[in-house]
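Contributing new complexes? Match this layout with 6-deoxy-beta-L-fructofuranose.
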Amino acid sequence: MRDYIAIDIGASSGRLIHGKVESGKLTINEIHRFKNSFSFVNGHERWGLDFLIQQIFLGLEKAKRQGIEECFIGIDTWAIDYVLLDKIGERLADSISYRDKRTQNKIEEFCQSISKEEIYKRTGIQFLEFNTLYQLFTEERELLEKADKLLLIPDYIAYVLSGKMVLEETNASTTQLLNIHERRLDSHLLEKVGVEENLFPPLVSAGELLGEVLDKWQEEYDLPKAKVITVATHDTASAVVGVPAIFPEKNWAYLSSGTWSLIGIETNTPIVTELGYDYNFTNEWGAYGTYRVLKNIMGLWIVQEIQRLYENGKYTFAQMATFAKETPFFTSIIDVNDPIFTNPENTIETIQEQCRKTGQVVPKTIGELTNCVYSSLVKCYQKELGHIEEVLGKKINALYIVGGGSNVRLLNQLIADTLDLSVYAGPSEATAIGNLAVQMIATGEIKDKDEARKLIAHSQELQVFEPNYVRK
Ligand code: LRH
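Output block (do not edit by hand):
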């Protein structure tokens, strides 16, 4: 029986989850949890990477105290962002968050020298203003000149732990720098953005052994003896591996619900079509040669911001859901994907301003505000799932909701009712579970992704929500 630890860090929190297979079940246990956020330093919104690394060591020390002497570890985080390293492998600056304003309107500027259609044809990736492509386009040239290597966040953490540098492909695809047909870095786009291919370490697939945690860390901290496996390092890719698709015969979609809502399907071939371009669907690379054809929706970030701002964080998310239920749904609808919600000064005022401008009832109480966001998210899911069906040419009849948002029963039922399909909710730790599954497949403990999904479905409790035909 082997021990595995998933290090799973999202934009608002991180955790170390211990997993193992025991009596035919995948058991998980949270070892350590910590907050994550960006803050305004040296002119930009930046992540505190040193804090995150400290938390990882704290968590690994806790694991050792719990009796884990030897283990495998895998790291996944949010996508897109990166660090630049100098020739001796030292970080040149703290990583800038994708929510920083530096890339505002940069797609248009970049596209003066290459068309959007051409970028999409090459990459199959959705246009998000903060994609690594546009971040690199706006990056300080002086810093880029000093840079010897660029590492995406989970690859950087893996490098700190193991001393080995890679560019893991599930996350690398979100940069919008990979050519989806050649399955390598796109030399034309690299040239346009003014960086050399050797700025990047070698592109690798999820599921390879990277190396042992360096001796220097073993000497400084009391850690288990650990080997790092390169998992599906993009958190959304790990979450999709963790989807307990128990009805593979159904046309199923997933909703990875956390800071972001990622709604889409898993395919074996990318869908890079005109319609996909028109709807701005992405084809992010998944583990084991799959693709995530999906759409980014602003997600629970807006709810998290309301929670933080409303009377100084007085209400919990559970209370917010309870209050939301007391007011009628679909009273006021905002466009959750409007970039004004990416990082506004004050989310509550921005929501109210949008409702005022569009002549709708202005939500004021915590319940009304939460209700407005839930209603708007559900409307957006409905629209995007419709587009997915159109792109695919078939009807979706099951939706697996995974991630923290899958705990919100009210929202799950509202989705089942409004989208008129069966909703299977859970696990809320699908990302960590997908991370663990890739490690277990790499060591041969689980055969493959299908077997992993069966095991997950068999081990985790799923909630089923059927539509009760209150159709809107
Ligand atoms: C979710 C996520 C998403 C990306 C965004 C930057 O955490 O990784 O898939 O688009 O963060």
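Reviewers usually confirm one structural detail per submission. For this one: Residues 243-472 form a domain with the Nucleotidyltransferase; domain 5 fold (CATH 3.30.420.40).
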